[in-house]
Amino acid sequence: MDLLEKIVSLSKRRGFVFPSSDIYGGLGATYDYGPLGVELKRNVKERWWREMVYRHDNIEGLDAAILMHPTVWKASGHVDAFHDPMIDDKASKRRYRADDLIERHIEKLETSGKGKQARDVRTRFVAALHSDDMPKELHRIILDEEIRGPDSGAFDWTEVRQFNLMFETHAGAVVDDETKIYLRPETAQGIFVNFRLAQETARQQVPFGIAQIGKAFRNEIVARRFIFRMREFEQMEMQYFVCPGTQMEHFEEWRAKRMQWHIDNGVRPERLRWHEHEKLAHYADAAFDVQYDFPMGWQEIEGIHSRTDFDLKRHQEFSGKKMEYFDPHRKEKYIPYVVETSAGLDRTILMLLCEAYEEEHIEGEERVVMKFHPEVAPVKAAVFPLVKRDGMPETAQALAADLRGHFNAFYDDSGSIGKRYRRMDEAGTPFCITVDGETMETGSVTIRDRDSMSQERIPKDNAADYLKDRMRTWSRSA
Ligand code: ATP
Hints:
Blueprint: H1 3-14, E1 17-19, E2 31-33, H2 35-54, E3 59-61, H3 71-75, H4 78-81, E4 83-89, E5 94-97, H5 98-111, H6 115-130, H7 134-144, E6 157-164, E7 168-170, E8 180-182, H8 188-193, H9 195-202, E9 208-217, E10 232-242, H10 247-264, E11 272-276, E12 286-294, E13 297-306, H11 310-319, E14 325-327, E15 332-334, E16 337-344, H12 345-356, E17 357-362, E18 365-370, E19 381-385, H13 392-404, E20 409-411, H14 417-427, E21 431-435, H15 437-442, E22 444-449, E23 455-459, H16 463-472
Parallel strand pairs: 3-9, 19-20, 19-21
Antiparallel strand pairs: 1-2, 4-5, 4-6, 7-8, 9-10, 10-16, 11-12, 12-13, 13-16, 14-15, 17-18, 21-22, 22-23
The protein binds adenosine-5'-triphosphate.
Adenosine-5'-triphosphate binds at residues 186, 218, 220, 229-230, 233, 235, 300-303, 342-344, 346-347.
């Protein structure tokens, strides 16, 4: 089993992530978060919100509806141009993104020492992305480079075709073109259309940002790799409105801050890197992705984009409403430029699952342990009575109840202590507290550390403060 398969299996077995509608055989590329997964997800959202909205007094939150006026998607360009170039392998009947296949081919050439060929293909690839007939040019590269189907090894391709990714539905009882609406494919447009209302009601001045966490929907054609590419997923986006001409300095500021945030969540810096876009959208003047070294290779988890005034200008044009801002310092009106940070919540979760997963061999036994940063761990502490008598269960339950006033704590009295530790290791619980005979005499408990498995005794009344301190100062052991 490769790492991803192990994570998929652990996720179902332990309640991180389940296939959606599992009893009916699941629904493609759609997943549900189980009891542990939902805690992990909430912790990540909470950390993002705290970092973006609470730590910046010039960033406001927003929660826009998933359904929006259909003209929004004409203005944003999604109706005309939200396509992916797809190609089918006739042998395996699998469908791939053509640009993805070529990027992987280039990476393979680079890592196998064929630097010159890699550079030549890259030059051709960039030209293809900018050409008027992008599908045809991508197809030619795949044929000329003899890129084979990743699953079949065959060289038997269809043409490259464009597919629109938006989910359509209808508002009200009548199903016709007039009632057609879309499930939003990104949260960003909810921010753009509310730009004036949010700015005026919160009395913000440029530069300022609007942040939002919410669901987005894309009818992904190739939807594999667990929660990496889903049809219903969640984004954490922030649009930062700046004075035209100052966008690059804000772009660099946000690049640094966003990379640091992932590191602060416990991701090893060497497993993160920047990837610059080969092709900038016609309105963008800079675009970088944060990539993580997933089991299936380096892949995007977040994009940082400098989008100029494209979106606000288009909404001004399509709605007829002014999107200008009067800058009291410069005493002039302008449509602000936008730097956006756009992170996938589910991809962040997958990254944290991959980053945390470890197998260790302890005294002839295998231990699977999820070494989450304690601040994102679903359960922070588990409390066990050593045995189910002598008042130990009552004391342990009272301690768990006390800890729940501070963070998510769990009580468990079934099975041997060793088994209880292993269950908590798989759940990624950083601390296990045992109430034993000595607790009943002196009031001290043992605290067992998930990562080092070492134990120490502390007074039970100090447990909450002690654990909070340990969580704050946690760092990943090698
Ligand atoms: P990709 O090239 O992988 O399809 P994208 O460039 O289209 O991603 P953006 O439109 O920039 O992605 O969206 C911002 C973020 O939303 C991405 O970095 C990713 O983390 C997340 N995201 C996008 N599509 C999906 C999806 N289908 N499933 C899960 N997360 C997604």
